[in-house]
Specification:
Among the domains are: 174 residues, Galactose-binding domain-like (Jelly Rolls); 215 residues, Glycosyltransferase; 86 residues, Maltose phosphorylase, domain 3, CATH 2.60.420.10. The protein has 14 helices and 28 strands. Strands 1, 2, 3, 4, 5, 6, 7, 8, 9, 10, 11, 12 and 13 form a 13-stranded mixed β-sheet that branches. A hairpin with a 6-residue loop joins β27 and β28. The longest helix is centred in the middle third of the chain and has 21 residues.
């Protein structure tokens, strides 16, 4: 029996009566011919209908072979047994509600738990018995956070009830719940996945059908006066078989830890697709997938490319008839449902970033029709003008209260960036007319943004302008102004003023955007600037670092993400506070920022066929790392000495290293075993 889950965005709740299952059904030679619900899903036409040309209909007429590797699986045991207690049973409540509402007490006198800690190792066995008036509860910790299928193997008399709940945090951890209590849920943001299994006599194994994120596991044994023996309790951890080719370390231990925890976060979100958060909804949100590849490419290199290729294709396959992409592809949110138009722009930018890394021209040629159809929607939304106006549906940008009315600076700056990306892709795919058209439109959008949105009194671009009156609204954000830097919209003479303003921490303020951002406090539109949250911070940090603000970015990473590490997090959270998902791939931006800007390895041509190295970070004494490419690994070590950054670079001989213009004392060794070594100094 299966019942629907209660919490936000979760899978179904598994409720299985093992007594109704034939113990032999899991064997390969089991005869399931008499199962009543197994049917061939095929509609064969009658002779009359076939004469008209109607053919046999099948739900999946063409199966396309997956281009991604088979997911890896690993059996993982709990890291620690925390406690055993009793629960006052509430059989009147639904399955899930029982675990959330039942009172947890000290272990009752008639209950018994022996060997519970042995389940943290292979070969352990725990004996668990309940008394007449209470059930028995055990709490286990997994470290670090893992994604997979919780399972248990048990000997029982028959009729005992086993309930398991798993969650992203331990009770009392990160300010959620109470230490020593059971796993609870507020039915919205803090979620726990639950399953129930009713035992048959003898030894048996049950495994959850859908994978989820696990940091804590709560085991509840009910109706077991004789007791049950648990032989195994753990997780079949699963994920993409990425190769950890990239790495990073530096003199700042916080930044080094952030890179490693960020890489682990991305790995946990790499399942059969990019999942936004393994513990809450596991959907492949479009914006999340675009951003996660930026980190995965630097941490895992070419082994991550097939997943991104699949993602980009799936977005195109799910494209709406009007040209917009679905905000989740594929997924349970239908094509006709509301979508996020700015995600379509990010998808186009993401296709360009994938090509810049992989040189996968066949994919670009495959996606060009969908890209052209998408950009047609935005051109129509300009209503005969240049800037897109009055965006319908979910004008998201991110969890921040930017001014979205009329002409939107953040949205149109993304539009400009998408046009630039599309023009590049059109050039590579031999579409010169499209390339010229999109280049011209990108330039026109940039010119119009400079004319309409620039406020000389603020020396910033305002978020919103009224298309009817041309009146500028007061609110400004990091979002629109950073994109003006990132996409070259701002003229050179404005860039310094923009950089100074959007890195003035005294003016930056997070804003309310429920349900993720609440209680941010008042916002002064005259003096303050909307601060980017964890999602759009990826683009804001990149823009600021490119404009010369690397040190500010490093401080922001330490201040924003460092407290997560201090709290004991092993994955990075969706927000800077633990109000939502506690493992969110887009928050792994430290991986991208540190590899790109501290190591300084930057492609000057697609596929890193020509690249440079501009190490940075005034408060960093040394750094070392590896950036994977399709041609091999680029490694760099640098140290700050006597006012200089002294760097040693090793790279595949197939690549061309272009020294930064400020490099001095450049020495390049001859090729050895297909690699070259360059040594140079930069003025610090």
């Amino acid at each position: 029996m299966i019942r629907q889950s209660l919490s936000w965005g979760q899978d179904f709740l598994e409720d299985v009566d093992g007594r109704q299952l034939d113990p032999l059904w899991i064997h390969p030679d089991f005869d399931d011919g008499d199962w009543p619900y197994a049917q061939v899903m095929e509609a064969t036409p009658s002779a009359e209908v076939a004469a008209r040309g109607w053919m046999t209909a099948r739900p999946f007429p063409v199966l396309v072979k997956s281009e991604t590797a088979q997911l890896e699986e690993e059996q993982v045991w709990p890291a620690h047994f925390l406690w055993a207690k009793s629960a006052i049973p509430r059989p009147d409540l639904p399955v899930k509600q029982r675990l959330f509402d039942e009172e947890i007490t000290d272990l009752a006198d008639g209950s018994c738990v022996t060997g519970a800690a042995s389940l943290c190792l292979p070969g352990g066995a725990a004996h668990i018995r309940t008394d007449e008036n209470s059930d028995t509860v055990l709490m286990y910790e997994f470290h670090p956070y893992r994604v997979g299928y919780p399972f248990l193997e048990i000997d029982a008399q028959g009729g005992e009830i086993i309930e398991v709940a798993v969650a992203e945090s331990l009770p009392g951890e990160f300010g959620k719940g109470l230490t020593g209590d059971g796993l609870r849920s507020d039915e919205r943001m803090w979620v726990a996945h639950v399953f129930r299994y009713i035992c048959r006599p003898g030894r048996q194994r049950f495994e959850k059908f859908v994978a989820t994120g696990v940091r804590a596991l709560q085991l509840v044994v009910r109706d077991a006066p004789v007791g049950v023996i648990v032989h195994e309790l753990g997780l079949i951890a699963t994920g993409q078989p990425f190769k950890p080719e990239g790495n990073f370390a530096c003199s700042d231990p916080v930044l080094t830890r952030l890179w490693n925890v960020g890489a682990h976060t991305v790995q946990m979100c790499a399942q059969d697709g990019w999942v936004d958060c393994p513990g809450r909804e596991s959907r492949q949100w479009l914006g999340d997938g675009v951003v996660m590849f930026d980190m995965a490419a630097r941490a895992f290199g070419p082994s991550s490319w097939p997943l991104q290729r699949q993602f980009l294709v799936q977005v195109a396959e799910g494209q709406r008839a009007d040209g917009l992409a679905r905000m989740v592809s594929p997924g349970d949110i239908p094509t006709t449902a509301i979508t996020i138009p700015d995600y379509t722009l990010l998808w186009i930018i993401g296709v360009d970033r994938y090509f810049e890394t992989s040189l996968d021209l066949p994919l670009i040629e495959r996606l060009m029709p969908e890209i052209e159809r998408s950009l047609g929607w935005f051109e129509r939304m300009a209503q005969g003008g240049i800037l897109v106006r009055d965006i319908p549906e979910w004008h998201f940008i991110e969890w921040a209260d930017v001014d979205r009315r009329g002409w939107s600076m953040p949205f149109n700056a993304l539009y400009c960036g998408a046009l630039q990306s599309a023009a590049r892709l059109a050039e590579f795919s031999q579409r010169p007319r499209l390339a010229l058209r999109w280049k011209a439109r990108a330039a026109a959008v940039a010119e119009e943004l400079n004319r309409r949105h620039w406020d000389p009194s603020k020396t910033l671009y305002v978020d919103s302008v009224d298309p009817e009156t041309g009146q500028q609204a007061a609110r400004v954000s990091q979002h629109g102004n950073a994109l003006a830097l990132l996409f070259g919209i701002a003229p050179d003479e404005r860039r310094a003023a923009i950089l100074k303003a959007i890195t003035d921490s005294s003016r930056l303020n997070l804003t309310n955007a429920p349900p993720i951002m609440v209680d941010a406090g008042p916002f002064d539109e005259v003096q303050q600037i909307v601060r980017a949250n964890s999602f759009f911070g990826h683009f804001v940090y990149d823009a600021i670092a490119e404009a010369g603000g690397v040190d500010w970015v490093l401080e922001e990473l330490a201040n924003g993400y460092g407290p997560m590490l201090d709290a004991g997090a092993t994955t990075l959270w969706e927000s800077f506070t633990p109000v939502a998902s506690l493992c969110h791939g887009f928050s792994a931006t430290p991986v991208y920022q540190l590899s790109k800007h501290v190591l300084g390895i930057t492609p000057l041509a697609d596929g890193y066929t020509r690249f440079t190295a501009r190490p940075a970070g005034r408060k960093i004494d040394w750094a070392t790392g590896v950036v994977p490419t399709g041609h091999g690994l680029i490694t760099i070590e640098w140290i700050r000495e006597a006012g200089y950054i002294c760097a040693t670079l090793a790279y595949p001989a197939l690549l061309e290293f272009a020294p930064p213009s400020t490099a001095i004392n450049l020495v390049t060794d001859e090729e050895t075993d297909g690699r070259r070594v360059a040594k140079f100094k930069l003025s610090a």
